[in-house]
């Protein structure tokens, strides 16, 4: 590598096997898997991950198996469970705490009916609990009359930033060259590979993987892609009563569908407070212009849901933060080859539910990049501009 100290620009003329733009949980997973297989990997991020400007921050993420969105995700999440445990062993970090999980709503709601469909189709361990049974098992949950809960024992909590750090550390250990604070401004495919221009230099790679989360459209110039970036707010509350009942040993992760189409979810208290949020119904935005401050009305809105569904968590607000979903029109993932360039891949818009799958997606993308068939059914995740 030659460095022009005068302009601080680097020119790395060597040909990398794979360049990755974006080192959040998806890019981190892809970088780790490819580096582990011996590929010469270079990765770029516009910030220093883990950071709080994209989609992979906020302490925790839910991992669950009885996947209400579609049964096709179940084998992928099962593989992801094993791979997260493998990353724990390799890194020595604690990344996954299995607390059990419960999906709560009317029996015919998308959440409950969808979770049951996946559980039955894949023979997953689960129980259906009435509102009274659920209240007896987890006293802090306050299901409304007519609601039921689909209980699954394997669900739990991923430590979000620790997962990203562990992926990137391990990728580096396997030889990946990762370049934080180096935004990719432009890329171009030619006969021999991809040329990549960043804020600091020019690089070349045989293959290029775009994992840019909410910025993904900016890396697909000239293409009409139907991604919608959605602002989401996370809140941490102090329990108002019976704090011990929110301990991970006593409180599962919980998802709710209520008032027809509203979704709400919460975590046990692992020390920072009880984290809760709505799923979707956020305003459309962009990664560069999103309002990062949280309005009092947004806290009031989530408090109203807390008082109904999780009243013991209705204590002092400790913190709120803004995070970004990048939604596809059907809310399924987008993992596919670029339609015009056979050596360019997109693996990132995950519609607000992708974190748990990241290591399995890393494996799938590594397979595709190496010219192997995908090990999972990716039929729902194709290019659909
Ligand atoms: C509030 C919230 C709650 C969620 N809850 C869950 C959950 O419980 N369970 C679950 O499974 N999923 C959940 N998700 C979804 C999950 O977190 C995301 O699908 C996942 O984090 C997306 O990862 P990513 O790597 O695609 O994006 P990001 O983490 O945002 O990474 C993209 C990276 O690309 C970089 N980048 C962008 N443009 C450039 C450029 N030009 N040059 C260099 N770098 C660039 C950015 O800096 C960023 O680091 C949630 C998401 C949010 C926002």
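^ structure tokens above, recovered residues below v
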């Amino acid at each position: 590598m030659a460095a022009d100290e005068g302009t601080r620009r680097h020119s790395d003329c060597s040909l990398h096997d794979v360049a990755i733009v974006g080192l959040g949980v998806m890019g981190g997973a892809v970088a780790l898997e490819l580096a582990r297989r011996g590929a010469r990997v270079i990765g770029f991020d516009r910030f220093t991950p883990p950071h709080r400007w994209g989609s992979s921050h906020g302490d925790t993420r839910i991992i669950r198996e009885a996947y209400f969105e579609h049964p096709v995700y179940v084998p992928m999440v099962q593989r992801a469970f094993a791979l997260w445990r493998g990353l724990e062993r390799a890194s020595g970090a604690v990344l996954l705490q299995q607390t059990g999980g419960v999906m709560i709503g009317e029996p015919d709601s998308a959440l409950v009916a969808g979770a049951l469909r996946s559980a039955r189709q894949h023979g997953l361990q689960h129980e259906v609990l009435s509102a009274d049974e659920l209240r007896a098992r987890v006293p802090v949950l306050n299901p409304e009359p007519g609601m039921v809960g689909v209980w699954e024992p394997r669900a739990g909590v991923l430590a979000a930033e620790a997962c990203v750090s562990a992926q990137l550390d391990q990728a580096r250990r396997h030889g990946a060259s990762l370049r934080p604070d180096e935004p990719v401004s432009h890329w171009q495919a030619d006969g021999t590979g991809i040329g990549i221009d960043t804020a600091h230099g020019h690089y070349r790679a045989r293959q290029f993987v775009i994992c840019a989360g909410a910025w993904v459209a900016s890396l697909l110039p000239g293409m009409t892609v139907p991604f919608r970036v959605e602002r989401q707010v996370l809140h941490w509350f102090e329990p108002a009563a019976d704090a011990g009942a929110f301990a991970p040993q006593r409180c599962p992760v919980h998802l709710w569908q209520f008032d027809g189409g509203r979704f709400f979810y919460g975590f046990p208290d692992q020390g920072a407070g009880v984290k809760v949020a709505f799923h979707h119904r956020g305003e459309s935005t962009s990664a560069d212009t999103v309002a990062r401050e949280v309005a009092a009305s947004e806290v009031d809105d989530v408090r109203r849901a807390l008082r109904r569904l999780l009243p013991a968590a209705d204590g002092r607000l400790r913190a709120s933060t803004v995070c970004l979903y990048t939604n596809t029109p059907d809310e399924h993932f987008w993992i596919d080859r670029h339609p015009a360039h056979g050596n360019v891949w997109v693996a990132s818009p995950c519609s607000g539910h992708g974190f748990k799958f990241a290591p399995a997606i890393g494996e799938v993308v590594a397979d595709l990049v190496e010219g192997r068939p995908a090990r999972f059914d990716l039929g729902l995740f194709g290019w659909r501009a």
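DSSP finds seven helices and 21 strands in the chain.
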